[in-house]
Fold these 3 entries.
Entry 1:
Amino acid sequence: MLIDIAKKSPLFSGKKKAPEESSGPAWKILIVDDEPDVHTVTKLALSRFKLDKRSLEFINAYSGEEAKQILIKEENVAMAFVDVVMESDHAGLELVKWIREDLKNSSIRLILRTGQPGQAPEEDVIVNYDINDYKAKAELDSRKLVTSVYSALRSYRDIMLIEEAKENQIKHRKGLERVVQATSGLFELRTLFNFADGLLTQVANLLNLDSETLLLTCNAIDAMSEQVNTDELHILAGTGQFSSHHEKPVPDHIRKLLQSALKQKRCLYEEDCFIGYFPAKSGWINLLYMDGISKIDDLDKKLIDIFAINVGVAFENLLLNKELEDTQSELILRLGDVVESRSKEAANHVKRMAEYCYKLALISGMEEHEADLIKHASPMHDIGKIATPDAVLLKPGKLNEEEWNVMKQHPAVGHQILANSERPILKAASIIALQHHEKYDGSGYPTGLRADEIHVFARIVAIADVFDALSHARCYKPEWPLDEVLKTMEEGSGSHFDPDLLRHFIDNIEVFTKVKDELSDENLQS
């Protein structure tokens, strides 16, 4: 009888039809039945079935337990025919319960079939079990079989489309969250090097990639030429095989791809490569090259486009901030040079001071931004000397008491010049100018502050200033040997100098002597 049912199927014919081109993977149908003939007939009756130009793939299980193992391993099983009575009277019902409750699979369409409907009444089964259809084997002819499969697969297809839409919505939302998270970190980076390194990290996180990357920058004027030369593309950072490419020529095959992005003024996706195009209003263009990436989907492309806009804003802010800081620092450095040149101090004194203070701040455990602040503020430590008379400032011999009292006024004068500014560098400079002649034991001037009452910036500057003064010839003394300099400074530990900062300085003296040699007056830099 089962074979007759199969032969009467509208899909069964002795004539062979030309195979249709499939539009996707086959629908997976699980047949769970302890009778081999049921498997054979079901496959025969549905052998030429197609939905959306997709055929069927049959998976066989001959018990409830075997079906469980298959469902654990197999993905995207669309529907299952489940016999009620197998290794036990309720094996099929137990399998249905396991699929819905333990496996938590609510997508698969389940059709129960039984040869003994009295053992599991239809109404009780439909009410108590999450199934999609219930059929007695005796009533399930070929036409009803085909109809039930069409109904089940269409239902499964629609469920999967809804799930896919939900997943895409979640993915899109998470993608946007990653964009915000990635670019927010870039806004905090203060240097071009950190920005370059951070950008590579954030792009990899955004796309969940671990590929070879290069970050380059190009002047927009150069980018307008038909052929961009390799010396016009500056490598800022790289990862993987490109990590050693810093300031080296760009490989020719990469240059051609970068030229294409510059010409089209947009991000490009070429085979397994991605070229990011990030322009800034300041006239510079950042280019990101990623090699060995898998195909990027449409959602990732949209996320990259949004990311590119935010990167452009972050880069623009970085350049503007850098321009302001560089201008401010240069003005401070030049003012410091003016003061030092007037007092006949060593030509590179303020530059050495800036580097001494920066390195001692880092060695003593200060944050990078704090060390950077003292580096830019310290050149103004003697700005008050601009008001000191030449007769006092340039006197080659020892100052008398009256002259010394005049000289001691320069910290207060410097503070007055720089005070009341809200700019961090100028605020720091005003504190340094006022306090850098204070001593740790309270015997300094102008106000006799002691220990932690003296700002840490001023305590650092005090060490750097004395070291540089003793290490170089002045109008009133010759240069001292290094061992005498260190001996004298150690004698001032706890009285003139902060003992902890001085210990950091002496323990790392090679760092500071290197700065002294590199910025010696013989190597005067413009």
Note: The chain has three domains: 2-161, 187-319, 343-523.
Entry 2:
Amino acid sequence: MPGNPFIVDHAMAFGFRIWQGSFFNMPRAHVHSDIEINYLFEGYAHYLHGGHVYHLEANQWAIFWGGIPHRVIEKSQRNHGVWLTLPLAWVLHWDLPDNTLSRLLAGDMLLNIATQPAQIIYDHYRLKLWQKEFRTGDKEQLRNVILDIEVQLRRMQSTESGALLEMSRSPTAVSSHQLASILTQITQNYMTLANVNAIAAAVQLHPKYLMQLFKKATGLNLWEYVIWLRVAHAQRLLLTSDDTIIDIALASGFNAPSTFYQAFRKYTDGATPREFRRQKSFTPQQNGSTQDTHTLPSAVPAIS
């Protein structure tokens, strides 16, 4: 298991992306605020995630929250798969079963494997269709992809299968229960939270200690994470509604247009909400469809 597990690469988010390629051993873990979905067409890969090692094999779905340090530690020489990332704020509005979201935020990896040939063919078809529609950048086709991904997550809830290889102590001292409690407060209230003190009061921790705890567990700045969730919420509304930009700003938790514009441009590589909407929200990278899963896109703001 090469690499130092205590060194972690940090990024706020990938956003909504779909790409394919080969899994590579990652010398160190990384974190991001998105929900991530992996699928292998062939081969296998071992993931270290949340203090556990998970085995991913061909024709298997895996979903997890990227806020827990994770990395590929072993893979077959020949492998090929697809990665999808979705803003956590989007998934929060899907009204998934409570135990699904709480498990993801606590560091579980949800797994599901197809064994029937017809199901495998269908899964492969859908993944290729998602990539094709995503590359168009068309608003309606992007919406279709997002809806279909939601359906897939719901199906996985009822047919989940485990592939846990071993148990090991998490490199962080923060318990899964404690982290889940903090994240629950944030994800349920991020649009109305006034400051870090409000979160600290809800979880009965000193604000300074809370910020240190969150940073240690996820590698992310606590309040920047709240702001990112608000921006991601605004992105979803820009993609799926015709609401005015001011209404979207208010609905996303921003009290002033200037604050909204400043935060939005910070996390969209300088694009304004109007430009984001005009570009149909998400334009795939034009440098090919294959991307290493641990290479951060240039538009992703890193955290020191």
Note: The chain is about 45% helix and 20% strand.
Entry 3:
Amino acid sequence: MNYIDLALLVVVVAFGIRGFYHGFVSEVAGILGIVLGVYLASRYSVAVGHLFSQHLYDLKNETMMNLVGFLLVLASIWVFFLAFGVLLGKVLVFSGLGIIDKALGFIFSCLKTFLVLSFILYALSKMEVMKDANAYLQEKSAFFSTMKSVASKIMRLDGVKHVEKNFKDNLEEMSDEVKNKESFNKNKQSFDKAMDKGVETLKEKAKDLPKNMLDPKPHQTPPNPTPSNKEPL
């Protein structure tokens, strides 16, 4: 075991100790809060952002409204699940199942950290700038190869591919919606500016209109008819 494997092991065990302290129920509640929070935030971020902008603080920017709405929904769901997990964990402690909850919390947190690191390392290994580092870690670290293999197998599952595709589609849909609304706002601003300019021009012409009406036009005498030299027959 080299220093790379030792560092990865220390990170996994450190988060496992944290899971032992919080307990299994609290750890699971935190994960469920994040997953459900992201799902609900992707659905209702636009509506919540508009409500926030209308009743609390006018953000005046569609992208900022969507971002604030997303964060508000995510934070609310996550905090609710964390509080529920802490409350349920205390109930288990008083019921005499606290040690089981803590032991399962250690195991669950170690597995969770292992998977998170696996996905991070897998994503980094796909980047072109990490090509040399990937080759070095692949050769020197046994943990890196194992983590990368686990993440690769999970990413090839049909269910994960379906979720990933839906997530990307939702992001593209939100991005297109934001772009369309921003384009509409820009066109509306250009139209408003053109209308304001036209109104100002009409006002200037209206100011000159009474002056033109009051100014008398010079009297023009009709031309005298040219006398005819012909005598009547």
Note: Residues 3-162 form one domain.
